[in-house]
## 1
Amino acid sequence: MLNKQSQRRLLRPLRFYLAALLGILTAACSTLPDVSNLGASLPKAATPSTGTVDVSSRQNTLAAMEEAVTGSRLITGNKVTLLFDGPQTTTAMIAAIEQAKSTINFETYIFDQDQLGLRFADLLIEKQRAGVQVNIIYDSVGSIGTPAEFFEHMRAAGIKLVEFNPVNPLKRFGRWQLNHRDHRKILVVDGKIGFTGGVNISAAYANSSLFRSRRKADAGAVGWRDTHVQIEGPAVASLQLLFMQTWATQHTDDLPDLNYFPKPEPAGDKTVHVLSSQPDGDYSLYKAYILAIQQARKSIHITTPYFAPDHQLVDALVAAAKRGIDVSLILPSVSDSGLAFQAGQSFYTQLLGAGIHIYQLQVSVLHAKTAVIDSSWSTVGSANLDIRSFLHNYEANVIIIDDEFGGEMERAFSEDIRGSEQITLEQWKQRPFSERVKEWAARSLGYWL
């Protein structure tokens, strides 16, 4: 008989393989838009000027281009706090929930019934009974191993819950969209404080990944390496809107009629762009990512656990490296998804040959989805650099255009580099032929991974 910890370890890859299998069976052949030369397609007023420009001017130019490409405006007056790994993130989230006065909207891919999940559930039930309206969206595939009784216990306390795109077709008869998954992680409290990033509610986040720690690793006590952000200010309304739009897609009961959008008040000096990805959407997140890579002048530093990109993203990274840009990727050395891991490795030869630096994080499982470009454009969110995130999933990322925040992101990237092993082209060419076959096979499934 497997204990609960062993069962959870088996369920993590099961979630992934189920989603991949269902994708193969149900996905239509949709494609990402042509973004090969976004800058050239923009109005003259939004394109960068020639010659030498200072950093702030380049920031303003990129901001204008990003607004033109995505069709949505950046939001000023925000406070943004970087949160690293599970303990720091969940501590901040719990503190915000404890102070809630009116509403809590919580959206997550994985909501496990383990020590961490039970702690969250108990606190949310306590707040609901105290008069705070709690609304929860959880993904059916991501939370496939969680007993129904866990959610029913919260529902019985008055919490409103939605199971996003249920695996069971009888639960959503006539609207069965199995390949579309809600991969977002959003928490909004009282419409005034918001969180998003890569952290799920699972035992994998009960411990630190030893990020910025000098103590020796204990394999049994190392958590996943992840990143989240806490936002205060006008941009929180955009996270709130994403939650409500996702709720509406599920054709369930309306949310209780409460004040989810209090009057926005400035809370800091950060300029923020909240962008999303959803099936048949406007691909604003994908476009913003590609645009930032295309407009990079100095460096592109990306951290992602699942790397199965489309050819346009690969082409943009290779073109940047050939322009002399420092392009560096931190990817996993171990993964909860063998197929995604091997699909990512299938690109190593091309990337290394173009001069791109590849590092594999050691000790902990990598789950952070972040990037920092030219030390001033940064993003943190739920989207991986894979086709699934931009084409099939519901995702949410926050973009911050700011030197100070970019510097903090660069320091975190450097710290992860110190905990990583660099892969060289010469070393990579020595791998066994059998590994190459696995990579080729996994890459052929990239559309569905």
Note: The domain at 16-443 is CATH 3.30.870.10 (Endonuclease; Chain A).
## 2
Amino acid sequence: MNTVKKTRDMVMMAAFIAIMMIMTVVPVLGFIPLGFMNATIIHIPVIVGSILLGPKKGAVLGFFFGLTSMWKNTALMPNLTSFVFTPFLTMPNGESGGIRSVIICMVPRILIGVVAYYVYRGVSKIWKKRKKLALAAAGVAGSITNTILVMNLIYFLFGSTYAEAAQANVEHGLYLFIVGVICLNGIPEAVLAGFLTALIVSALWKVQRA
């Protein structure tokens, strides 16, 4: 039975990674271009995978999400601020983002699955009969973790360089602009992630029980 579970988990991991690859390669499927950055729904396989497979595998899926993001911003769909997600592009001043870009691209994405899993577990313990509520909460938490960490790391690690590249109006302060991006992008992404997580995981549970 343990071997069967390991095999099933490996197949599911491969499936989630394949889905992320497809969402990366197919234009506007996983990353929605907004001009100065890409809104994303590619974090949903990471959230779903973490709930079904646990936080460690969720972190691994988040790592692969980070790799797809770096690939996308380097070669497939670079934009004016792609340097914050990849060390292989230069900033407006000609410098590379280096390790700062790697941190922004990888750390928030690895934490998506970890946060989503433990939020699901926590809400499930409080409301034991409301699994869909716990799933939605996990989706929202995973998504907002990504947005808040990415945008705050951009603020602290790149600051005015990012604002210049994004051609942002920072008359009232750069952080207000960052908060605006979090609200305009992050809230809709989080709501969608909560809805899709509850829908997808519930459907997969039914298939597993069948």
Note: DSSP finds seven helices and two strands in the chain.
## 3
Amino acid sequence: MRDLLYSLYERRISRRLSAVEERPAHVALMLDGNRRWARDVGFADVNDGHRVGAAKIADLLGWCEEAGVEVVTLFLLSTDNLNRPADELEPLLQIIADVVDELSGPTARWRLRVVGALDLLPEDLAHRLSAAAERTVGRPGLELNVAVGYGGRQEIADAVRKLLLQHAESGTSIEELAEVLDVDHIAAHLYTSGQPDPDLVIRTSGEQRLSGFLLWQSAHSEFWFCEAYWPEFRKVDFLRALRDYAARHRRFGS
């Protein structure tokens, strides 16, 4: 009965959204709560929470396609996570590598980009992620960013470093660069360069903080926080986020 009620509710929201023009072009998601969900449902291995969460990603991308979303960014692993004990980190890295391979497989419909500091990752993982992204070059469909080894401060530092090196190679002095430097120069060297900034950022698990996610790009984003842990996140929750987004008046900092 509960599933039937949710199905009816989902259809009702979908019908209402079909008449709404304001849709996010770029949705970023923090897939949080996997380990807590695994403990709550009684899994002996909390990594099973990550495995269930990873299996849900393809469903999410299908929902995004139906909603006309053009870019999706998924926060899978932060730079802080790299400091976890090996018995926690190694299974998680394997799960991430496996799901990225699946998302870049021959039947996948998405163009994949890895956003993060690949040099901080184990060499074999960095290679697998890069190879997965290479397999999707030229594919139609939405753009999928997988944030692995990602930190917002690290991204900005990397962008400034790339900018300085680029101008040093062309013979520009620090003084000359300082005269012309603006936000667009830095934005052009971010991991997400060439893409629109996220219109909507969703975080599951009830936590209401960014944890360093897309610090630069989210300056004018709308945020939606969901109590559900990521493995139990439903399509109706995603539609609620879109409905809430459509009802907001975006001010873009004004």
Note: DSSP finds nine helices and six strands in the chain.
## 4
Amino acid sequence: MRLLAIIAVRKGFATFYTQIPAAYLLATLAVRSLLGLEDEIKRAIDRVSELEELIRRIREIKVTDFACGNGTLLTASYSALMNVLTALKHYKGLDINLDEIGKAVIEEGVYGVDALKYAAQVTAINLALISPGNITKENIHTIYLGYITGKNQPWLGSLELLNNSKRVGGILSFIEGYKIEGIEKVSLEGSEGSFELPEKFDLVIMNPPFTRATGRVSEEFSGRRGLFGFISEEKYRKKLLDQLDDEVRKDVREDLRDIARDFARRENLPDIIKEIINGTRDEFKRYLNIGQAGEGLLFLYLAYKYVKPGGVIAFVLPRNVLSGVSWFLARALLASKFHVKYVIVSSDTENGYNFSEGTSLSEALIVAKRVDEHEPSEETKFIILTKKPKSAIDAMVLADKLLANNATYYGDLIRTVPRSALLNTTYLIQLLTGIFTQYLIMNY
């Protein structure tokens, strides 16, 4: 993780790697939410009527990270799945071949994409190391992020997938012939020219790049830094930014606005929220812009496009997702298309408010389930950690306690809010305009 961080900084990538305890906390909550095992693990398994169906589902699960880095979130997700199988074997005495299923999950169910080839290689190595047997293939890819001067062609890394995953592989094959500059499938032996992703995933888990579109001057680098700050020549950086605006950001913004408008029509929202969404008041138009949210919001939208109905997304995001004006449409997306299950922030004064290595940013963990229709019984758990877990095992124990609705573990602050309350005037304005976290703190 430290080595990759050095390389990422050297290249000017907006890269932060998830702390291992945070990865296991997020992955455990996400996997258990996906499988419907939201209680202390033994009690949750005791309520499962079709155990063989649960095993089959785990074997066939598809999980991805479109900014996989060193693979921490993917390995944590794999571990969370295997922990469920181990619990089934232990508590139910089932004859489960853990090695065979674990091998199948890595070979057929785990997908990773990253712009740094070296990071993708580390992901491949990490998955191989935790595999229970000798694996024969992996599904880890690199997609070029930058400007190919010889071809006069900008490429946006994983965000190219918002256009068409088949287009990405086909055009890159044509342009680059699957050279290092283009797109590659990474394996332990090297790289091979193939690119294939499922159309939809059961779980999309990510800690995406955070850098905003605005640059900043840094003594560590010469010139202006910011989004795509790794590009030394400003004219090429501008072409890449133009590509991002023309090919991605504009379409994403319009689709998010349409989703928000539909949300306003379907739900009994407060008038002020409808006015914000419909853009009828000039002072609220800034809520409909997404530029300052940077790539994090675009990757959240990418997850929305690739997750199955009933699937789960799990994200490490800047805490601004709960309060930032530029994240308003993202919050509307989550409220409209997802059942937000968990929102976790840290108030650990000793160990920090972050969940990523090498940053002092305040961050949030979010787990949400994609739903076509909302149920009145939906609830969201807002959790303020007073002490962050310090190890993977500690994080899994904490996740189990949170799933069991144990509000006393670690002395954490937990508020469970039903959807009906979130759609109430006070709660919804606080949620969508970003005051909810402050509300929670003030009420304890």
Note: The first strand starts at residue 63 and ends at 65.
